[in-house]
Specification:
122 residues, alpha+beta, Alpha-Beta Plaits, four-stranded antiparallel beta sheet, 4 helices, 4 strands
């Protein structure tokens, strides 16, 4: 299963406040991501968020089409809520108010995967 990691440029010193934002995160109702025609395009298997100093990273384990995952995340109320609450703590604003803006920001924030390994790959 592939992983994707996206970065957020944040103001240092707000780790507690940012942690509180994610403590109340509303998960999506289903891990299934639908494509434009209603077919299953991807599945979100797991997410994790890491923070240190002025960098926050969201890691997503998924299967399927990563662009479909980004479009799906752009429409999820919990993700929209988190993005709004994070805005005051960002050192570089993120345009996530529309699906197009969210997807563009997602792509721009995506880290290059150098390697990934799992016991499931054996």
């Amino acid at each position: 299963m592939p992983f994707a990691a996206i970065t957020y440029d944040i103001k240092p010193g707000y780790e507690k406040e940012i942690t509180e934002i994610f403590t109340g995160f509303r998960r999506v109702g289903s891990p299934v991501v639908k494509g434009d025609g209603g077919e299953e395009a991807a599945r979100i298997l797991a997410t994790a968020v890491f923070i240190r100093d002025d960098t926050m990273v969201r890691v997503i384990e998924y299967e399927g089409d990563l662009d479909a995952v980004a479009r799906h995340m752009a429409t999820q109320p919990g993700v929209e809520e988190v993005e709004k609450k994070l805005a005051p703590y960002l050192s570089r604003p993120r345009d996530t108010s529309s699906v197009e803006g969210f997807v563009a920001t997602f792509r721009r924030s995506l880290l290059t995967c150098m390697a990934q390994m799992s016991v499931r790959d054996s």
